[in-house]
Amino acid sequence: MKRILLFLPVLALAWACGTKTVIDLPRKASPAVTEAVQALLDEAKTQEMDIHSIMVVQHGKVAAETWLGDNAPDKPHILNSVSKTFTASAVGLAIDEGLLKLDDRLVDFFPDQLPEHVSDTLARVTVRDLLTMNCGHDTDPTGAVRRFDGDWTAGFLSWPVLHEPGTFYCYNSLGTYMLSAIVQKVTGEKVVDYLTPRLFEPLHIEKPEWQESPQGINTGGWGLYLKTEDLAKMGQLFLQGGKWNGKQVLPAAWVAEASKYQVPSLPAGMKPEMVERIGMSAETSDWLQGYGYQMWRCRHNAYRADGANGQYIIVIPDKDAVVAMTANLQDMQAEINLVWDHLLPVL
């Protein structure tokens, strides 16, 4: 397994192969963090974990960073559900601009795509319920709706809402797609375009690629590609209360609400009885710490954006630190355990 450890001096602009590369995060190498990253990688190798990259930021400076295999600092990586945090940030900005409210009803945005019968529970689903994965679905409709030709919005609205909205957690990627559709509806722009001048450009996140539905709406809950440093920047933005280079990029109140405990959480695809049956507990699981607005709470008073197969932005306020990781693996709890076991003690 090829490893590349890079510790760059503080740079604002670098020129590589004739292409301008913007580097915003200053570097201050930490021997202790570097050693801890190496120990993490060594253990990951023994467990046959395919880690692609790690960047550790503390006190606003990159303390250690590494890319493995054919991954590289300038190579965007699929984020899977880390995309959700960026979609939620678009919602927060739209709310701040007076275009949305948390208590706005889902059905009011799509009157022409509603099923013939609108149940009382569907009628009560709000933007807040979508943000907290509490829209009332008993199962996630994402796979079923995507497998069939047809409008994804209509498919979501036709899915039975069996629980009272706001009372039942069901991880729901298509619910995040609906947030993307709502943002596009009220702004007239796709989420990626709406975020470009408001988030991506201030953070110098260049040319983000985001997949779309057949209806031309960014997928919202998945499909965004960014570089490892872009993830670290997003985590640092949250750690700084939404400020970047002295500018309030995201509303401070939104950052606080999005990252705090809003509702109880469960692992994707699980129900409470399943968790109880396998003996999962809050003492050992980072998926039972609660959910915010498209962000997970963690042990150690941390919070995170995470995506399938090992994509992470982990914000650790008590250590003034951010850990960004990309990977291709199945056991994401084992991956985050490596962070707690190796990185947390030296931060």
If helices are DSSP runs of H or I spanning 4 or more residues, what is the number of helices?
A: 12
Mean pLDDT across the residues is 93
Largest sheet: 7 strands, antiparallel
Order of helices and strands: EEEHEEEHHHHHHHEEHEEHHEEEEH
Walk across the major sheet and give the strand order. 1-5-4-14-13-12-11
Kindly provide the radius of gyration, computed on alpha-carbon positions and rounded to a whole number of angstroms. Answer: 20 Å
User: Strand pairing plus helix content: what structural class?
Assistant: alpha+beta
Q: Tell me, what is the CATH class of the domain at 77-226 and 260-297?
A: Alpha Beta
Helix residue percentage: 25-40%
The dominant shape is: globular
CATH topology of the domain at 77-226 and 260-297: Beta-lactamase
Q: How big a fraction of the residues is strand?
A: 15-25%
Number of strands: 14
CATH superfamily of the domain at 77-226 and 260-297: DD-peptidase/beta-lactamase superfamily
Low-confidence residue ranges? 1-22
| CATH architecture classification name of the domain at 77-226 and 260-297 | 3-Layer(aba) Sandwich
Beginning-to-end CA distance, first to last residue:
26 Å
